[in-house]
Amino acid sequence: xxxxxxxxxxxxxxxxxxxxxxxxxxxxxKKQETEIQLLKxxxxxxxxxxxxxxxxxxxxxxxxxxxxxxxxAEGYEQMDLFNEAEQEADPNAAEPEMExxxxxxxxxxxxxGKKEEDLSAFETTEVIKHKLEGxxxxxxxxxxxxxxxxxxxxxxxxxxxxxxxxxxxxxxxYACPKCGMMKRPQKDPSLLKGSVATPSLVAGIMNAKYVNxxxxxxQEREFARYNLNLSTxxxxxxxxxxxxxxxxxxxxxxxxxxxxxxYIHCDETRLQVIDEPEQKGTTQNWMWVYLxxxxxxxxxxxxxxxxxxxxxxxxxxxxxxxxxxxxxxxGYQAYHGLPEQITxxxxxxxxxxxxxxxxxxxxxxxxxxxxxxxTAYQAMARIGMLYKIEELxxxxxxxxxxxxxxxxxxxxxxxxFGWLHTLEGSVNRSSKIGEAVLYALNQEKYLKAYLEDGHxxxxxxxxxxxxxxxxxxxxxxLFSKSIKGxxxxxxxxxxxxxxLLNGLKPYDYVAxxxxxxxxxxxxxxxxxxxxxxxxxxSIPESCRTNRPGAST
Length: 552
Known about the structure:
Helix content is 47%, strand content 7%. By secondary structure, the chain is an alpha/beta fold.
């Protein structure tokens, strides 16, 4: 290879030109080292993917052509989980000596009074007293009567399974013997005309399905064990009717309050609706979720909205012309076409997740020290510093958070993206690290936006937590049968998840709403509805939980 400069050219160079040449060579060397490091990481990633695909191929071949035995390796068979005790038991085995028994891990001792605190929320319904009676009250040695010196009290907790009670309502009709005029006493309206449903029963069904993820078919089987024949279809009808008649007005009022907030989050998750017209049964529909978080400065709430597609026009329609402020979301392109009055901020958790995915294949082939030299590890470390700052300023005011972010987070974030830009020309776009770097650079504008206001969050994790209950329930009931069912689910999830965010017990709160709404009649006033909102101070104490963390 011919040299770039001859010996004579080098000798004739000025000092300034030599310095410039050395600097250019250093930059080139740094770039070459970066490219070599990235190639090493790409090689390890390909090795990992090759091993993963080989394992999947071997497993598929074993399933198709292999023996039906559950043997995974020579001398090892999968244990029957239902027969483990019988298989492993050895009647002739000697009991271990006491000194041979070692605890597996340290178990923290409960603080004094912890049991009393745990049981303090429950009513004591049974008191058992153990006293000496008759001749047992006298000392057998000297015949003197015993004297009580102290008492020992131990508390236990009983569980009473679901119990159904019938309420019989009889209305007497009166008539005047002289003129025949008749009079009937006024009675409270029923929840659903001609139905045995009550607020407590419907609230229990909603709580089981939407809070605890129990499908209606499973509830039907559970009710049957208690001699109650209540079909899935009947329960579904109750949910749809009560959601539309009683919960929807609360939802609409919550949305009005939501649109007045200046700081919101948005996300979307899949949902399959079977009876959507003109679509295949396997087509995916979408549940959109909108919420305010702990920094928003407005009431905490979650609003679910069922939509047929994932089109970007859905959030435009939902937010309308009323919302003006910041919307925090992931990198989905549809959010970037929102009106000018909406400022989109990004999700650092999504960027971090991509670097974590790039790091995973490298963990098998690199030592800990080598791992720390990888691009993915360095990116994770830099992002981790940003999150550490957020943790430290979490309980501060928005103004204080803004000041600290400008002082601490902004220089780190600028340095992080400056470093990513130096990698842009070197990374392989088809590699995991290439995807991570390019995703972060494409989202740079949105990932930096949280620095603008102390009310903003660094990521969209609040929205992801909000859809967690929905995702767990979806794994159990898999799909919605009808559009009305999907819309009712959106309404009920909005009510129950918002109740949790506001420290309420979902079952008690929904039962309270249904009871009050049926009494308010078909056209309740806005003032009456405001008293029923999850954050209203008028909600009774019986609906509130006093257990920290129980509502999240």
